[in-house]
Amino acid sequence: MDQFAARFRFIDLFAGLGGFHVALSDLGGKGVFAAEWEPTLNTLYEHNFGIAPWSDVNDLDSDEVIAQTVPDHDVLTAGFPCQPFSKAGEQLGFEHTLQGRLFFKVFDILSVKRPRRFILENVPNILRHRGGQTAATIVAKLEELGYEVQVHRLSPHQFGIPQVRERAYFVGSLDGLDAFKWPTEFEETTSIASVLHSDAKPSRDIPEQTLRAIDMWDDFLRRSPAEVKLPWFPIWSMEFRATYPYETMTPPKLWANGRSGELDGFAGSFGFPLERLSSQEQRELIPSHSRRDGDMEFPVWKQKFIRQNREFFLTNRKWIEPWLDQWQPWEFPSSFQKFEWNIQGGVRDIDEYVLQVRASGIRAKRPTTAPSLIAMTNTQVPILGANISRTGKRRYMTPSECAELQSLGGIDLPESDIQAYKALGNAVNASVVRAIAEPLLVDLKAPKKSAARPQAA
């Protein structure tokens, strides 16, 4: 830290829990401005860092207001909203009226204040969004201001933190980036044990239905013969016993053409017969992934998953049939009827792994890493199997353990677990930022007067 003894000044936009602040403070920086619109996080930021954040960056609505409100600084950081560019959303990008154009607010502040360095963070899909046009627009706009820009994708697990959560980072410098090198990856194996607390006290129990669904899939694993290779593809149990058409014809196409009678003789989810039923009654017996209106033809990937699941069932029906009869998975919600086994070659004991309930099913992962933290609902918080939880029973990871996954273990979190999980899912990882910032800021001396803006042609 000696090389940063002359402190630099930074600002933290779309600050959230303050991952950028933690990282740059560790390198000797002084935060002089922050912006965060969410009231709970705004208040918490002041509590943790002693800076009362500006609320809405849209209120910085002119060069004059920016010049008067935002202090001079050497480094700008921003995790500008990712939802418009995420694969999980509608991918409206800059056309997203509420959030998509907030990058241009970052651009405005860079244009007026001219900090010598910046670090921006977003979801990796921003690099592919609109065929790469969105990222190209961002880089071009930043280069217009005289910055040299580089972009790279990094994940916490590359720095010894047990979480795979890739993000795109944009770095820029008015002094060039000839001396800058992206950080070297960590080479040792990670373990979720490094962030678990032996005295953890989860604030809520796992719902009984979720525990029963986990037991169901644990029994599936235990019944499977050792010589049977478990599927690498998602297991869709609703396709077991199903025979409805899915290649040259689909149920939605038959319904749309008033030909529901052609499904007589076929079976829907779990083998329930479709004959002599109305189209609406048939719809209730077709898996959710195969009954969407307008699906006149299923994409190749979906046809492949359906075919693979049916073939797996037919090959293994001797032990799967008794499992179906005992557990009756059709009584569970659709997300519990699906299972993702990401542990080829692993011991078939579900309590040895980290679990997550997703719309795509219950996912089991090796305890080398936790599932990627997202702005989680209650149902998506990682569940620790009984054999790795340190408490002897299945439990949710606590907010403080999830904070360790974001390298934010030293700050206070929202009092509400729901708000804490959501904020952590939106946070930037402080260790990754520090690894990027250290070589980027190594030649950043004492604050100097803001550089002049490029002259218009």
TrEMBL record:
GO terms for molecular function: DNA (cytosine-5-)-methyltransferase activity. InterPro entries: C5-MTase, C5_DNA_meth_AS, C5_MeTfrase, SAM-dependent_MTases_sf. The active site is at C82. It catalyses: a 2'-deoxycytidine in DNA + S-adenosyl-L-methionine = a 5-methyl-2'-deoxycytidine in DNA + S-adenosyl-L-homocysteine + H(+). SUPFAM superfamilies: S-adenosyl-L-methionine-dependent methyltransferases (SSF53335). PROSITE patterns: C5_MTASE_1, SAM_MT_C5. It is an enzyme of class 2 (transferase). Keywords: Methyltransferase, Restriction system, S-adenosyl-L-methionine, Transferase. The keyword Transferase applies. The keyword Transferase applies. Pfam families: DNA_methylase. Its EC number is 2.1.1.37. One of its GO terms (biological process) is methylation. It comes from the Bacteria. PANTHER family: TRNA (CYTOSINE(38)-C(5))-METHYLTRANSFERASE. Belongs to the class I-like SAM-binding methyltransferase superfamily. C5-methyltransferase family. This is Cytosine-specific methyltransferase. The gene is dcm.
